[in-house]
Structures are given as C-alpha cells and as structure tokens.
Amino acid sequence: MKRCLLLGGNGFIGSHLAEALVVSGFEVTIFDSREQKRPDIRQESIGYIKGDFLNENDLTHALDDTDYVFHFISTTLPGPSLESPVCDIESNVIGTVRLLQQCCKAGVEKIIFPSSGGTVYGEPDTIPVRETDPVRPVHPYAISKMTIEMYLRSFYEIHGLDYLVLRYANPYGERQMPFGNQGVIPIFLYAIMEGRSPVIYGDGSMVRDYIYISDLVDATIALIKKRPPERLFNVGSGSGTSVHELLGTMAEVLGVEIDPLYADPPGIYISRIILDISRMQHYTGWKPRVRLAEGIGRTYRWLESLP
Fold it and tell me: Which residues are tagged catalytic?
C-alpha cells in the first residue's frame, strides 16, 4: 500500500482525489492550512496534518514515511499572481523547489503536480493542443506552473525524484466554491440561482475545455496505477465550449432564460484552448464520461444544498 501525502487536500480537487485514492487502495494523509479536515470528505481513514506549506519544519514532519506526494497547494490564483508576480515566485516557485529538496532527503518515490492546461500553452497555433506543442505562457500564474514543470524534470534527471505532470483543463463540479474569481461554471450557476446576470468578459466567443471533477480524478488515478513511461499528460474533455454555448447549456438544463452582462476582457486573453487527450487515452484507456449538461446539473444541485 503506497503512502500518499496530499498537499492541499482540503481544496476542490484535492478533497475529491483524497477520497478516490483511499477507494483505490492507497493510504492517504491530507496536509492543509485549515484547522481540520473538511466535513464533507467521506473517507474516515484519511489522516490529517495541519501545517504551513512554506514552513520547512511542518513539511519535514509531514513527509516522513511518504511514498507519493501530491502537490496540490497553490499559494496564489491567476488574479493575484498578475497583481503580484514576485509573491507568486517567492511562494509557489521557491516554495516548490524547497519541497523537492525535502522530498529527496525524505526518500519520496514520486511527486504528482497539477499544471495548467488552460494557460501554459498560451495562444496555440493548432487545436486541439498536444503535449508536444510549443508552450508560450504569458500570465505569471502560467509561467510559475511551467517553471515548476521544468524543476520537476531537473530533479528527476539530477536526483532521481520521479514525477508526473498533469496539465488539467478547466475543472468544475461539487465543492468548487462560486465566491472567487476562478471557476466560471459555479460562478455563473450561483449568479443564476440568486437571480443575478452572469458577467461575460469579452464577447462570449472564448472557448475552453471543461472537465467534470469525477472524470479528472478518474484520469489521475488511472495514470498513477498504470505508471506509463511518459511523465506529462493533458487531462481534459477533448472538446471545446464557448462562453455563449456554456450559458445556452445552462439555460437548457435549468429551464430558465439567461440575460448576461458584458465586460471588457482581461489584459491577458487566450481566445481558444482545447486539449488533445490522445496520449492519456493511449496509455490508460480512460475517457471522460460526464457530459457537460449532466455535470452542470450536478453542480447546480450541490450549490442549492449550500447553507
């Protein structure tokens, strides 16, 4: 039984992944800055360590007797990283390099890192985007993700620390909170639920690849179990949806009319990104199962259940 330390396991993706790892036969401990494990995590066997990712002593204690480290902590989001790139570098990049050094000292076998399939490629030349296509990150958030990818490869080549990079598309689903500036699907759904108009940045033609959380987790588990020779994978639905199409699907699923508001697009704007998932499918046989309309319905019902 592999012992897994899940950094950021109280988060949206991390909490779902923690549960799935236990079901798949792994021993799981969550490391998070919150006071306690979130109450909606259903697996009682999951351990919990409260700690600070940037505190070396906290990490040293947590890494003891760990085989796999899932680095799902991000100290900044796309918005704040644009406003303060130095903070993003100091906390995410330098913090991760320190983590890699500690993993080597602790004898960790493998580190799994969620990169950003929606940003590291920049504005792509061809659609869908393959793992071998050029990366042109412009946003500080994407640059940090790409820098960490390169450090992972460096530590593998120099120190033998194995790794897996997952370039996730735009995930959505239960436990993704609608109150911030990340996660357009719950943000739109929550606005509709409250009778407000969703705000579209740009003209609504922007295309993204949306993947439901259970599909994302299933893909991650499949890669960990199969242990393919490649160490970099796109994980998405393999199809694109414009913002207008997204709202149209929401209107159909919810049976409502939606009258959005429009705002100027942000300064850094990628018009179209769809991930090629053929490498993932070749090595694992995995394929996404939850269609967008079904995932939107599940997410909306979860939002309705919030206190």
Answer: 141
